[in-house]
Amino acid sequence: MTKANDKAPNAAEIELIAERAYRRIPERLRKRVDAVVIRIEEFPDDEIIAEMELDTEYDLLGLYSGVSLDEKSFADAPQNVDMIFLYRRPMLDYWAESGDTLDEVVRHVLIHEIGHHFGLSDEEMERIENEN
């Protein structure tokens, strides 16, 4: 478990942490998320910052981009690949301030974004987080 006073991990190390967190997500969810691409980015891009009306580039830890399963239709032609973006620098900033381990921060953000893929409520996401 990484602590806030350790050296800040690079994108490849965050990806490994995210892979570990992904393997700890309940199987019933993982099998329906395999087609979702998970990417590590330094920050959200300018378009996302403007669209979401963020005050700073540090205000967003992760983002689900796609159409949630509760809104998809089998008759719809796929438009884009569903993606989850994990924003390295904002997560590191949050990690340094929160007292949580980086593993906990990454897992929380990943579960939250996967929850958006499923169209889950915050309460449902919290329940999933508490399962493991």
Please specify the SSE layout and strand pairing.
Layout (H helix, E strand, L loop, with lengths): L10 H13 L3 H4 L6 E5 L4 H6 L10 E4 L17 E5 H11 L3 H17 L3 H10 L1
Parallel strand pairs: 1-3
Antiparallel strand pairs: 2-3
Helix pairs in contact: 1-5, 5-6
Report on this model:
- The structure is a single chain.
- This protein is mainly α and 132 residues long.
- Helix content is 46%, strand content 11%.
- The chain has 6 helices and 3 strands, in the order ααβαββααα.
- Strands 1-3-2 form a 3-stranded mixed beta sheet.
- It is globular and about 35 Å long.
Keywords:
11% strand; globular; 132 residues; Zincin-like; 6 helices; mainly alpha; single chain
CATH third-tier fold name: Zincin-like
The CATH architecture classification is 2-Layer Sandwich
Q: What is the chains' assembly state?
A: single chain
Question: Residue-averaged pLDDT, rounded?
Answer: 83
Please summarize what this structure is.
By secondary structure, the chain is mainly alpha-helical.
